[in-house]
């Protein structure tokens, strides 16, 4: 307490120091005057009176100094002095200060920008309480190569009662639902969840309530929770929304709650996170199929909150034991061949998904840029302090302590770095809206990215850390000056200490090496991207647009006007007929969402039971199965290789037929003719009650492979079925021709409305746009890394320029003497260039080593290019050497043109 | 010549407080003179050290000060005891008396008392 009080007083004194000192001086003077007066009146001679008074008082100056030391904080005071001095130094050389601050602003600003993205995605992916307890439960059948096959309702009940979890919830992946009854039918994204879903996430409603976790309604409980966004947008933030009826896919639901503003659902895509409706369901009664142990739904995800204090590993241990006992209990359901396993995955991991690697790469790249900027500034600092060596030597000769000098130099560099950091942050803050637009929309948690206090703290921490690390070395080197030799040089340009020039060379070499690493990374990414971009997708996206619609799927199938394929085909044929009448349309086709190339969510495959091979669906491999109309293949230019395509005569009442791609033929019927083979695809796609036992489907054709899943995958097995035989609810209408992308939505909507006014029309996109969106994250990381690499190259060029200029300046006497003695100017030029080349060679050598390591680490991000790609490495090395030579050329020219007479005179 | 004992910081503070308590507001020179007087020139106060002490006491809140005119119309700073200062004086007096009593008792002990 007393110490604190003293400290506060001292701190206060720091502010009032001058006043206290003045007062002390005044009072002492007063005292002396009074004493002298008294001495005089006692009869002393004036001189003696003054002398005696002074003697009696004691050493006034010493008293004041002593008082000052006792009452102040020398450390802070020195810091204050140093700061003032540092500011003066900065102002005195504005060019240097500007370059250093701008360099640091670039480095720290870029790092902070990437950090803000990472903070929102990798560091805080789950905006829920105790996120560490949240897991996703995934079950695999490694025996048949199937992953994430989904969990059946009885299995979920086993998990709930296992004692491992506080609660576990089944959720459907997001899907669409039609909200009718408003001015225009709306398509909203919804998620069906078990009523304990929000209890698992640990989030409550802002208005009303969430579902009752104890609700055990087997089917839909007809309650709906809506998002804050929907509430504000569609219902004008109506406070009386609770209890209101909503018509969703023609069924009536009641709103029970509104989620808080800012609540985002879990999921790896922004679409999933922007779910607007949650429907409570038990997944076990109409309209869901009978909850058999074997009826798994791929589209269902189980997330759970573990018991507090349980680690993932421990929970996994308990779970493995549970799985083993279930396998013993139900041997028929879990054949040994499939090797059923259940895995716990931290929810945070599944939410971030595939961008983790790209983001880490970006952070690494930006970290290199930061390192290079720091190195550059350290180099500048070294160069500048060299110019101040006389000043420092004088101060040392006057008795300045070495620690004191280091502290002062460090203060200067810290100030520079901090100003750079603040400037970088300021730039970022001002440019954030512009920068956010550069980020692809497919990045998860895009909406959570913000330039917040945490980000500012990060920027400041980075500045201080960098300033300390990179300021300490120059400061330390400077404080080791050899006093006598520096002072004896009498203002001649110092020839510099060996230590300092070695430090500068090391800095430049590392800068070059780091830039080479970045450039190689950028080069490899560029080549991957280019290869992907130039790849033949196997379908022709040219002049094709897709527009989506959604047929309602009411809970009671008998009320569905499009219940059977025959009923739906009437609608579809009419949609197609009318679509062809739209101006510019040459061809039209329909398909389900899975048939949308590249743009679709993972639809979840179906178990493929081949006649005579598999007997049970839980042993079967899983295959993607888009549903399309006969015109689809021609419209997308996917050539038929064997057999025939669907025809308009393949309808509900004729035998079921299917078309596979080459990859499916290769995978499932190797060395056989797949034509005429029969398969069964077990589930209805949406998990609604299937009317009858699945029937045998005959394969009638084989089409060429197309990259419809991802441009990076040459071929994923596909089995296509005709929409006239298998009705689909999630429809995409494909149109080819001279279309006006901005008008097409309205045109299609007008046509569809005249057929059925309850159908929504949404998501009109050109396939070219879909194609380019599918590469957006790759493009983003490539562009960013390329930008960073260019920055790095620029900085490295500046660095080598600075160093060579410095070397030339140091040696100008030597060069002048050589010239005076008759050296050829060309020789001087070569001599200097050789210095630059030496540095570049050393940097490139180190850099190639580093780049090889990094390129192998990032092999997963490369496509079609080897991590050792010779042309990239060679090209980058040549480019870097070229820049290094160009940067050394200017000082080399200066050295060559040196006038020996003036130079020697001036020395 | 025999060295006069140096006045310890703590005792000097006590003297200052006591002086102000006895005589009311005083300027620095007055305080110095009184201490000199009372101690009968036995204690040689290095008078300059008085002023930092006065500043310190003022910071600690024991005394307060303001400018005023001295008896012969010079500008001088007058110090007076505050409430906190009076309390400090009381407690320090008690402490000092206690210490003095202990030391006195200790010095008066004779060998036979300790058997």
List the helices and strands and how they pair.
The complex is a heterodimer of chains A (907) and B (115).
Chain A: H1 2-41, H2 46-57, H3 60-71, H4 74-92, H5 94-123, E1 134-140, H6 153-160, E2 165-172, E3 175-180, E4 186-193, H7 197-201, E5 207-208, E6 220-226, H8 228-235, E7 245-248, E8 251-258, H9 270-273, E9 277-281, E10 300-306, H10 312-329, E11 341-346, H11 347-352, H12 355-387, H13 389-397, H14 402-438, H15 453-479, H16 483-488, H17 498-534, E12 544-550, H18 565-580, E13 585-592, E14 606-610, E15 622-623, E16 627-628, H19 632-635, E17 640-643, E18 657-661, H20 662-668, E19 678-681, E20 697-703, E21 719-722, E22 730-737, H21 744-755, E23 761-766, H22 767-774, H23 776-810, H24 812-820, H25 825-857, H26 870-896, H27 900-906
Parallel strand pairs in A: 4-9, 6-8, 16-21, 18-20
Antiparallel strand pairs in A: 1-10, 1-11, 2-10, 3-4, 3-7, 5-8, 6-9, 7-8, 12-22, 12-23, 13-22, 14-15, 14-19, 17-20, 18-21, 19-20
Helix pairs in contact in A: 1-2, 1-3, 4-14, 5-12, 5-14, 5-15, 12-15, 12-17, 12-23, 14-15, 17-23, 17-25, 17-26, 18-21, 23-26, 24-27, 25-26
Chain B: H1 9-23, E1 26-27, H2 28-38, H3 50-60, E2 63-69, E3 75-81, H4 83-108
Largest interface, with counts of residues having CB < 8 Å to the other chain, equals: A-B, 24 and 21 residues
Strand content of chain A: 5-15%
Oligomer: heterodimer
Low-confidence stretches of chain B: 1-5
The end-to-end span of chain B amounts to 41 Å
Q: Could you tell me the number of beta strands of chain B? A: 3
Q: Report low-confidence residues of chain A grouped into runs of 5 or more.
A: 490-494, 684-691
| Proportion of helical residues of chain B | 40-55%
Q: What does the main sheet of chain A amount to?
A: 8 strands, mixed
Q: Describe the biggest sheet of chain B?
A: 3 strands, antiparallel
């Amino acid at each position: 307490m007393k110490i604190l009080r003293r400290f506060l007083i001292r701190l206060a004194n720091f502010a009032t120091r001058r006043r206290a000192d003045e007062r002390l001086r005044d009072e002492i003077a007063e005292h002396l005057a009074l004493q002298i007066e008294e001495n005089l009146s006692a009869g002393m001679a004036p001189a003696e009176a003054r002398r005696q008074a002074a003697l009696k008082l004691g050493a006034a100056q010493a008293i004041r100094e002593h008082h000052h030391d006792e009452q102040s904080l020398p450390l802070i005071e020195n810091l204050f002095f140093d700061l003032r001095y540092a500011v003066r130094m900065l102002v005195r050389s504005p060019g240097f200060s500007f370059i250093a601050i701008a360099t640091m602003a670039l480095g720290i600003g870029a790092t902070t920008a990437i950090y803000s993205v990472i903070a929102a995605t990798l560091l805080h992916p789950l905006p829920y309480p105790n996120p560490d307890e949240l897991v996703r439960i995934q079950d695999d059948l490694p025996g048949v190569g199937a992953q994430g096959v989904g969990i059946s309702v009885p299995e979920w009940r086993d998990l709930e009662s296992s004692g491992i979890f506080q609660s576990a919830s089944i959720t459907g992946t997001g899907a669409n639902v039609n909200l009718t009854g408003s001015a225009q039918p709306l398509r909203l994204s919804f998620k069906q969840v078990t009523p304990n879903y929000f209890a698992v996430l640990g989030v409550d409603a802002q208005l009303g309530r969430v579902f009752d976790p104890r609700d055990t309604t087997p089917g839909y409980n007809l309650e709906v929770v809506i998002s804050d966004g929907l509430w504000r947008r569609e219902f004008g933030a109506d406070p009386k929304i609770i209890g209101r009826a909503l018509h969703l896919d023609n069924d009536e639901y009641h709103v029970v709650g509104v989620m808080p503003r800012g609540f985002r659902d879990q999921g790896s895509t922004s679409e999933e996170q922007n779910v607007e409706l949650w429907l409570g369901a038990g997944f076990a009664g109409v309209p869901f199929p009978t909850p058999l142990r074997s009826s798994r739904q791929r589209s269902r995800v189980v997330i759970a909150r573990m018991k507090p204090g349980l680690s993932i590993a421990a929970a996994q241990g308990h779970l493995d034991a549970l799985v083993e006992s279930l396998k013993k209990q139900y041997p028929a359901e879990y054949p040994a061949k499939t090797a059923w396993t259940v895995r716990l995955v931290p929810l945070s991991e599944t939410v971030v998904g595939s961008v983790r690697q790209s983001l880490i790469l970006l952070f690494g790249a930006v970290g290199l840029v930061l390192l290079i900027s720091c190195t550059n500034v350290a180099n500048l600092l070294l160069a500048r302090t060299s110019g101040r060596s006389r000043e420092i030597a004088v101060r040392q000769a006057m008795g300045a302590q070495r620690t004191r000098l280091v502290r002062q130099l460090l203060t200067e560099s810290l100030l520079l770095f901090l100003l750079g950091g603040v400037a970088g942050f300021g730039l970022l803050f001002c440019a954030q809206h512009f920068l956010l637009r550069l980020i692809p929309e497919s990045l998860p948690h895009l909406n959570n990215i913000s330039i917040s206090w945490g980000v500012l703290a990060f920027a400041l921490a980075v500045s201080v850390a960098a300033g300390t690390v990179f300021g300490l070395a120059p400061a330390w080197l400077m404080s080791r000056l050899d006093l006598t030799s520096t002072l004896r040089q009498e203002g001649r340009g110092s020839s510099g200490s060996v230590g300092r020039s070695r430090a500068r060379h090391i800095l430049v070499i590392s800068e070059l090496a780091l830039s080479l690493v970045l450039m190689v990374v950028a080069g490899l990414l560029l080549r991957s991207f280019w290869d992907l971009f130039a790849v033949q997708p196997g379908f022709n996206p040219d002049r094709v647009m897709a527009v989506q619609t959604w047929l309602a799927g009411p809970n009671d199938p008998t009320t569905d006007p499009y219940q059977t394929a025959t009923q739906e085909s009437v609608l579809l044929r009419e949609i197609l007929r009318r679509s062809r009448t739209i101006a510019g349309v040459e061809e039209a086709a329909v398909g389900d969402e899975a048939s949308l190339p590249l743009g679709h969510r993972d639809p979840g495959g179906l178990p493929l039971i081949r006649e005579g091979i598999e007997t049970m669906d839980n042993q079967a491999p899983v295959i993607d199965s888009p549903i399309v109309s006969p015109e689809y293949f021609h419209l997308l230019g996917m050539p038929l290789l064997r057999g025939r395509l669907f025809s308009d005569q393949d309808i509900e009442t004729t035998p079921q037929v299917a078309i596979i791609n080459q990859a499916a033929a290769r995978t499932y019927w190797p060395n056989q003719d797949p034509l005429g083979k029969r398969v069964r695809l077990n589930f209805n796609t949406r998990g609604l009650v299937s009317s009858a036992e699945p029937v045998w489907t005959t394969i009638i054709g084989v089409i060429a492979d197309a990259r419809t899943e991802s441009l990076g995958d040459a071929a994923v097995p596909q089995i296509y079925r005709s929409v006239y035989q298998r009705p689909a609810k999630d429809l995409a209408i494909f149109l080819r021709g001279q279309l006006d992308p901005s008008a097409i939505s309205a045109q299609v909507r007008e046509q569809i409305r005249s057929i059925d006014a309850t159908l929504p029309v949404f998501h009109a996109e050109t396939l070219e746009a879909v194609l380019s969106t599918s590469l957006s994250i790759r493009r983003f990381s490539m562009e960013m890394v390329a930008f960073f690499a260019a920055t790095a190259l620029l900085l490295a060029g500046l660095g080598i320029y600075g160093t060579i200029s410095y070397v030339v300046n140091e040696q100008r006497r030597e060069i002048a003497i050589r010239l005076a003695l008759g050296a050829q100017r060309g020789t001087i030029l070569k001599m200097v260039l050789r210095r630059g080349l030496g540095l570049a060679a050393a940097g490139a050598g180190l850099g190639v080593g580093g780049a090889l390591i990094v390129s192998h680490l990032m092999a997963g991000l490369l496509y079609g290019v080897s991590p050792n790609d010779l042309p990239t490495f060679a090209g980058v090395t040549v480019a870097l050497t070229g820049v290094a030579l160009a940067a050394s050329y200017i000082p080399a020219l200066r050295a060559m043109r040196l006038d020996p007479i003036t130079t020697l005179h001036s020395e | 010549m025999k060295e006069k004992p140096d006045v310890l910081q703590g005792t000097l503070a006590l003297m200052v407080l006591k002086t102000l308590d006895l005589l009311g507001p005083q300027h620095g020179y007055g305080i110095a003179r009184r201490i000199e007087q009372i101690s009968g020139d036995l204690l040689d106060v290095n008078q300059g050290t008085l002023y930092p002490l006065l500043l310190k006491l003022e910071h600690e809140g024991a005394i307060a000060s303001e400018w005023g005119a001295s008896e012969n119309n010079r500008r001088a700073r007058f110090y007076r005891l505050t409430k906190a200062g009076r309390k400090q004086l009381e407690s320090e007096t008690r402490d000092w008396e206690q210490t003095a009593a202990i030391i006195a008792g200790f010095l008066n002990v004779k060998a036979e008392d300790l058997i």
